[in-house]
Write a structure and sequence with these properties.
alpha/beta, 469 residues, single chain, binds magnesium ion, GMP Synthetase, Chain A, domain 3, Helicase, Ruva Protein, domain 3, 20 helices, 5-stranded parallel sheet, binds adenosine-5'-diphosphate, 4-stranded mixed sheet, Rossmann fold
Length: 469
């Protein structure tokens, strides 16, 4: 089918772009060159050892899945790494992708199979789901997370004993929820008492439960969960609307709580806003302590950058740290993404990290090539933010969310571009200039009266501003 490496790789790329997101794609996959396809082995060339290691660490599973999907399960991937020997003769060498997990075999037969095999070994800390690199040590403290962190620490010292049971941590994406709850788990595992710590995302929990129903072994499923000393459930918002899963979780929750086991949960919003959750479950979430994680402030962002660079053994000038801390204020994950890309870029162009490189990197991550915020970019950003399509922004739909997104996009077009009201209207499906004026007014009014709306506007403005740097 794919007798040619270029076709094969571009087919993989089109899927990768969806799977890893724009930033990951630009940074890690664009620079890759396919070099041959022989005997069902696709060889790709990556620019440096660092690149190879990074791909291995972060994208190995995604790569495998893409190869399975696009080429076939019996295809293999090989990297060829270009090393700079300093004499201009970049002699590539080849690293074979290890067979595991990148073998053609199905990796996990069934999600519940793995739970079924759970034995005391896994229960006593060998659950690979707990990532040992998440610790309290490398979780930077700031005003944004002080309560959550110290409550977490207290729980880790005396699980099930403090009144922080359950401990419920909530906050937006990339603010450190998973890091913190895993740090608690690790801290407990490293403690002197042997405790069965189990970390699971609520999505995985729901899938395991689903498989258990299908395979008729709900008993086994419950027994497993009833035995843990510390249950960490990540992203409970995923339980929304899943009544059966909530029922079983309710049952497990009560049992564990009564028997003095510690329950730790995270959610992307406060319990009261978990609309699709049973009231009695939500009310139990509030029995212990609920603490939020907020966007890191400037100082915390500086500390996180410094820490990250230090742990990678990299020195960067203060003005670069300041610039990054100033520019990326959304969440820690995004900040980390920028740092990694910066390191990757430096290694790619073989330059020291300086302000200029930082600016370039940020630009190439945040948008395409030009640095002006144009109407297309505004439409794209707004449509992604509200999860509506660009077409919907331009068509006649009167659905409330779409109207709001459309009005906001018009508002920002007025604010950020030099286009006339008439031509802004033109870019929104040929509306006339009075529609644009109305949109701007509506946004201004809502901004002053509706707090949630204000938040969305502020967040969007930040996203758009990043591009303008
Ligand atoms: P969430 O689960 O809230 O989406 P994560 O826990 O996955 O967020 O955090 C995203 C990334 O940011 C992780 O790599 C994590 O290590 C890092 N991170 C978040 N908060 C901090 C912090 N306070 N100090 C250091 N690293 C952090
Ligand atoms: Mg998380």
């Amino acid at each position: 089918m794919h007798n040619d490496h270029n076709t094969a790789w571009s087919s993989c790329l089109s899927k990768l772009r969806d799977d890893v997101g724009e930033q990951g794609f630009e940074t890690w996959f664009k620079p890759i060159r396919p070099i041959r396809l022989e005997n069902k082995i696709l060889t790709i060339q990556v620019p440096s050892q660092f690149f190879y290691e990074y791909l291995e660490e972060h994208y190995v599973q995604i790569l495998r899945d893409v190869i399975d999907d696009r080429l076939g399960k019996d295809f293999q991937l090989e990297y060829s790494v270009v090393v700079d020997t300093g004499d201009g003769s970049n002699q590539p060498y080849t690293i074979n992708l290890p067979n595991n997990p990148v073998s053609g075999k199905p990796r996990v037969a069934s999600k519940f199979d793995s739970a079924k095999k759970i034995n005391s070994l896994e229960l006593f800390g060998y659950d690979i789901k707990l990532n040992p690199s998440y610790s309290f040590d490398n979780f930077i403290e700031g005003d944004c997370n002080r309560l959550a962190r110290s409550a977490g620490y207290a729980v880790a010292q005396r699980p099930g004993v403090t009144s922080f049971n359950p401990l419920m941590l909530y906050g937006g994406v990339g603010l450190g929820k998973t890091h913190l709850v895993q740090a608690i788990g690790n801290e407990i595992l490293n403690g002197s008492e042997k405790k069965a710590v189990h970390y699971v995302s609520s999505e995985k929990f729901a899938n395991q439960f689903f498989d258990a129903i299908k395979n008729n072994n709900i008993q086994e499923f419950s027994n497993f969960y009833l035995k843990v000393d510390v249950l960490i459930i990540d992203d409970v918002q995923f339980f929304e609307g899943k009544e059966k899963t909530q029922e079983i979780f309710f049952h497990i929750f009560n049992h564990l709580h009564q028997s003095g086991s510690q329950i730790i949960m995270t959610s992307d919003r406060p319990p009261k806003d978990l609309d699709g959750l049973m009231e009695r479950l939500v009310s139990r979430f509030k029995w212990g302590l609920t603490a939020d994680l907020q966007q890191p402030d400037y100082e915390t962002r500086m500390a996180i950058i410094n820490r990250k660079m230090q742990s990678d053994g990299i020195n960067i000038p203060d003005n670069v740290v300041e610039y990054l801390a100033y520019s990326v204020d959304t969440n820690v994950r995004e900040l980390e993404g920028v740092i990694i890309s910066l390191i990757a870029n430096a290694s790619l162009v073989k330059k020291e990290i300086d302000l200029e490189l930082a600016k370039q990197t940020l630009k190439s991550i945040v948008h395409d090539i030009d640095s002006e915020v144009g109407i297309d970019y505004i439409q794209k950003t707004v449509s992604e933010f509200f999860k509506v399509s660009i077409d919907q922004l331009k068509d006649k739909t009167r659905k409330k969310e779409i109207v709001m997104a459309r009005q906001l996009a018009m508002y920002f077009s007025k604010e950020y571009t030099n286009l006339s009201l008439k031509s802004i209207g033109y870019h929104f499906g040929g509306r006339d200039h009075s529609t644009v004026i109305h949109a701007v007014q509506t946004v201004n009014d809502l901004y002053d009266t509706d707090n949630n709306f204000k938040k969305s506007v502020d967040e969007l403005r930040k996203k758009l501003k990043l591009k303008a740097i």
